[in-house]
Amino acid sequence: MRNPIQIGLALLLAAVVAIVAYNIYILETTPPERSYTEFLANIEKDEIQSVYFRGASITGVDREAKEFITFSPDVAGLMDKLLAKKIEISGEETSKSMGSFSQAMLPALLILGGWFIFSRAKSNRSSGFGEEKNSQLTAYHGSKVTFSDVAGIAEAREELREVVSFLKKPEKFSALGGHIPNGVLLQGPPGTGKTLLAKAIAGEAAVPFYSMGGSDFIEMFAGVGASRVRELFSEAKKNAPCIIFIDEIDAIGGKRSGGGTSGTNDEREQTLNALLVEMDGFDSGETVIIVAATNRPDILDPALLRPGRFDRQVTISLPDVKGRKKILEVHARKVAIGRGVDLSEIARAIPGFSGAEIANLVNEAALMAARQSKKAIEMSDFEEAKDKIIMGLERKNVVISEENRRVTAYHEAGHAIVAILLPDTDPVHKITIIPRGRALGLTQQMPLEEQYTYSRQYLVNRIKILLGGRIAEEIVFDHQTTGASNDIIGATEIATRLVCEFGMSDQIGPIAYIQEQQGFLGASSSFKPHSEQVAVEIDNEIKRLIDQCYQETEQLLRNNSKFIHKLAEVLLINETIDTEEIDIVHHCYLNEKEMEIEMRKQQRLKQQ
Ligand code: ADP
Ligand code: ZN
């Protein structure tokens, strides 16, 4: 059934069956109809027991308990007559009867759907000619989202409150002759709640919300994008005050190249031009706010950012630990959370998570709990969900050779022990040798607080922790594996930034050779122009730093090789160990070491 034509035919068939079934159902269940005149006569003669309104359609029951339906052209006028005769009145809002309305519409929708797929499949075959122009426009009336659903971005919210009050009372603003913001550009990484925020503005101001993705405008056929823009704006103007939301505006709003363009670029420029024309062409009476979202503000055409267009720019960044906790709270409201769950701790354990990832985390945790038929989500479910999101599912059924497990256990123990023994490092949260995604094992550290600046020592120790895995393997097995390749990449990156970006190398001095380019996603970096000689110096310095870290870490681990063995043995048995268990092993090790020192002292005393 993967063929669209087959699906189309199946839908058509389903529609026919549904129509027949529905008509039989109607015939079976619908009471007989009575004329309105007859109905009025019945009322006069006291023959009616009760009536039920569905808009203007009335279902009545007469004294003989017979049901009938009729239609009132004058519902308001009818009320007095019914009340005078003390007839029982009940009813429902017309919108509620949408249920039965959509029931009635279902077959029609199925036919349309079937026909749509059918014709698309056909037109695809006939080289795409005569394709229907179907607009991707989505309109929501009565968005239920409010600012309380958007957490952790208080500043952005405050900036947008003004837009809300403007949408609510445009007169107040225009009377003062003030400049009214037409366009708001929300810029920030994906999943930080830009769409949610736009919906919240509409919800707070109780205005319609038109949404369209930037890439929806760009079509194969010339002129479609531009006409869609015009369509969208004319629809919105009719329903002003309202909000137009354009997601991924960079898809149309990228810098115009000017001259010598390919077909799709041409189309994009036409669309962008249409958008600019529309944004400039508002009358004072038309309160339409255009909210656009992008994660690439750096590539936007400057024309979009000129006064009167998207002159208000609001930056939304990834949430910090407090923000993450607030977002967790918002999403935790929707699920059953167990007593032992500490949202602050979860927030700390997920640095770098966006709002969307946090929403996903809560959802995954709920699924984990449901799978085990729990009544509420527990801390362990969050832990599991987090690992799944970060690293992919546990590969429980993957067969790993005993040799590999041992190497992994020592490798992870190496990371962990360096982190435990060195000062100014993040505490080790968890070590595991259960393979996940592509990793065979993992040592997780958890910062106590969000850090915005790092000391040189912290960075150097991070390099050492990363190298610790490989070094432990070497000490114990005397060979190297590729399992450490990611660690090596990580260590090299930190060392490079330390030297070239943070100016922390004495040799090179406080000069930033790496220049980070603006941009959220593709935060690309390039090198400041420099001489060949400087390049050599930089290379040497990075190598010197890593070499030094390597030697010091090797020394540290050799001095504590018993600790490695202990921790690795526990890991091989338990597979996953947490902070508490790590502490226990650490204490055992320290005690033994003390005892050993004590023993040696005794021996020496005896020998003397
Ligand atoms: P964007 O448009 O920035 O890519 P979305 O608004 O589509 O992000 O976010 C996707 C989902 O992630 C939202 O529907 C919401 O469930 C969740 N989310 C993102 N940011 C937040 C936030 N700040 N507060 C609460 N939920 C959020
Ligand atoms: Zn490693």
Write up what this structure looks like.
By secondary structure, the chain is of the alpha/beta class. Helix content is 53%, strand content 12%. It contains 21 helices and 15 strands. A 6-stranded mixed sheet has the order 5-7-8-9-6-10, with helices on both faces. The radius of gyration is 34 Å and the shape is elongated. Residues 150-153, 190-196, 293, 327, 330, 355-356, 359 line the site of adenosine-5'-diphosphate (ADP).
Question: Unreliable segments (pLDDT under 50, ≥5 consecutive)?
Answer: 95-99, 118-135
Distance between the termini: 91 Å
pLDDT average, as an integer? Answer: 80
What percent of the residues sit in helical stretches (DSSP H or I)? 40-55%
Bound molecules: adenosine-5'-diphosphate, zinc ion
By DSSP (H or I, 4+ residues per run), the number of helices equals 21
Strand arrangement in the largest pleated sheet: 5-7-8-9-6-10
Reported for the largest beta sheet, the result is: 6 strands, mixed
Gyration radius, to the nearest Å? 34 Å
- Estimate the global geometry from the Cα principal axes: elongated
The secondary-structure class comes to: alpha/beta
* Percent in strands: 5-15%
Count every beta strand, where a strand is a DSSP E run of 2 or more residues.
15
Q: How would you describe this structure in keywords?
A:
binds adenosine-5'-diphosphate; 21 helices; six-stranded mixed beta sheet; four-stranded mixed beta sheet; 12% strand; binds zinc ion; alpha/beta; 608 residues; 53% helix
List the helices and strands and how they pair.
Blueprint: H1 4-29, H2 36-44, E1 48-54, E2 57-62, E3 67-71, H3 75-84, E4 88-92, H4 98-125, E5 138-140, H5 154-168, H6 170-175, E6 183-187, H7 194-205, E7 209-213, H8 214-217, H9 224-238, E8 242-247, H10 250-253, H11 263-280, E9 288-294, E10 312-315, H12 321-332, H13 343-349, H14 355-371, H15 379-391, H16 402-421, E11 428-432, E12 442-445, H17 456-477, H18 485-500, E13 514-516, E14 525-527, H19 532-559, H20 561-574, E15 576-578, H21 579-607
Parallel strand pairs: 1-4, 6-9, 6-10, 7-8, 8-9
Antiparallel strand pairs: 1-2, 2-3, 5-7, 11-12, 11-15, 13-14
